[in-house]
Amino acid sequence: MGHLDMASLAIAEMREFAEFDPAEQRYIRRSLDVGLARADAYDRWGRDVRETDSIRRQHLAYQDLGALRGAAPTSKNDPRIDNYVGRLIRLSVFDLGEGCLFGFSAYRFLYERLLGPDARPWLPAAFCAASALPQIAPEKRKTLLHSISEAAACAPGWSRRQPSFFPDWLSPEEEAEIRQDLDGDGMGYPGA
Q: How many angstroms separate the CA atoms of 132 and 130, rounded?
């Protein structure tokens, strides 16, 4: 894939991220810090005791990431399916239960970055299973399950392309500057 193709894919990913709710954007950034060990998530994201506790629980839940990366089943007869899907659903229940991912698009965006492109075929099933479990409040279950399109749920194939845009933490000043750009000339971009 050429340099221009990679650049246009990154821009498309940035645009997709920009469409997410600010709470989803924040949670995705925080989750990438925790899941990819990019920064001290407690220092960067822990605004209060409740959030610090949430980050602690996330660190525990994300211990399964290492076992999931590169371990996606490759066929319908793969003996790893039960273990892989079970762990993926358990991890998905944690993230959806935190209440900061409001639909399949934000969930998929996060998990493609946490697990890589091999996880893509398994994400619709894990999302639907996790969304339907009793740990998720009934009204939230309905919203989540309605957020996945038929095309996403029934895709005949998935891209093997690695994600290229990994949103990172922004200082309050950087966020204010970007928001001002968006309100002014529309040239700014949240999360870039």
A: 5
Condensed to tens digits (0 to 9), the pLDDT of residues 98-144 reads: 999 999 999 999 999 999 999 999 999 999 999 999 999 999 999 99
| Cβ neighbours, 10 Å, residue 121 | 14
Residue 63: CB partners within 8 Å, gap ≥ 6? Answer: none
Within 10 Å of residue 134's Cβ, how many Cβ atoms? Answer: 8
State residue 86's pLDDT score.
96
Q: Using an 8 Å Cβ cutoff, are 148 and 127 in contact?
A: yes
- The residue assigned the tokens 């659903």 is 89
Identify the pLDDT of residue 181: 66
| Whether pLDDT at 189 is above 60 | no
How distant is the alpha carbon of residue 188 from its chain centre? 22
Neighbours of 128 (CB within 10 A): 16
Say if CB 95 and CB 87 are below 8 A apart.
Answer: no
Q: Environment class of residue 58 by beta-carbon count within 10 Å: exposed (0-12), middle (13-18) or buried (19+)? A: buried
Query: Residue 184: its pLDDT value, please?
Result: 60
| CA neighbor of 131 nearest in space, from 165, 168, 106, 114 | 106
Mean pLDDT of the chain: 89
Cα three-residue angle 57-59-61, rounded to 5 degrees: 70
